[in-house]
Amino acid sequence: MTRMGGPEHHLVYLDQRMLAEPIRLALTIGGVDFEDERIGYDEVNARRQRGELPFGQVPVLVTKDGAVLSQTSAILRWAGQQAGLEESPFCDAVEAALGDVRVVMRPQWYGHVLGRSPVDGTFLVPLSQAQADDVVKLLADVVVPTHLKRLEAKVVGPYFCGASLAICDLSWYNMCIGLLEEWYCPGLPKTVLDACPRLIQLASRIHHLPAVRAWNEANGYGTPPALATYDDTAM
């Protein structure tokens, strides 16, 4: 993959929020110029077959110097550095904890045990209907609420790492929006957040940042009712 003029950096991902949205937000908050290329699964597979995706998947980012960055966590860390966001071992720990949540969601995302093939993107090992029912029930009743309860206890305010915005806050914001609007893990009810007022307040704080608000408006994203109001004294 090569870069031919245009914006300083070139981000490639699917036409959805999911994994790349925290990267987009970090670059936007930092005022970093980038092209936001959004492609479909067929194009992902075509680029995979052409060897343009270092690890066979998106997102990837081509810097202004032509370096190709891959893997979500690595790109997000780089984007945070470009934007001057807070860095700390605790941020890394929160990112890892959010990664744990994503891992347990994968069978629900794909309806398959192993998700997509790294060769051609086809789904691998389908869940039976009984297994699928068990997955969503356990995710909703036990697994996701337990992970979120532990994260809730780590919000020291106003952000995860204290006074400064970090990439882990953006990762949580994107996940929170998706859980509230029920697109982050379809089939999982937003009630998994019922015992997480501090996490919701943190997401609301980010939602009302001017750069985030402008980005959401430009992309036609709405505001979940839970984030419509923000009390700056709540944390």
Spell out the key features of this protein.
globular, 47% helix, 4 strands, alpha+beta, 235 residues, 8 helices
Summarize the structure.
The protein is 47% helix and 8% strand. It is α+β, with helices and mostly antiparallel strands and 235 residues long.
Uncertain regions: pLDDT < 50 for 5+ in a row? Answer: none
The DSSP helix count reads 8
- SSE topology string: EHEHEEHHHHHH
Strand content: 5-15%
Mean pLDDT, to the nearest integer, reads 92
Structural class, from helix and strand content? alpha+beta
Overall shape: it is: globular
What can be said about the biggest beta sheet? 4 strands, mixed
Q: Nearest-angstrom radius of gyration?
A: 18 Å
Strand order of the largest sheet: 2-1-3-4
Q: How would you describe the overall organization of this protein?
A:
The chain has eight helices and four strands; from the N terminus they run βαβαββαααααα. It is globular and about 50 Å long. It has a four-stranded mixed β-sheet with strand order 2-1-3-4. α1 links the parallel β1 and β2 (34-39). It is of the alpha+beta class.
Topology overview:
Blueprint: E1 9-14, H1 21-29, E2 34-39, H2 41-49, E3 60-62, E4 68-70, H3 72-83, H4 89-110, H5 129-152, H6 167-181, H7 197-207, H8 210-218
Helix pairs in contact: 1-3, 1-6, 4-5, 4-6, 6-7
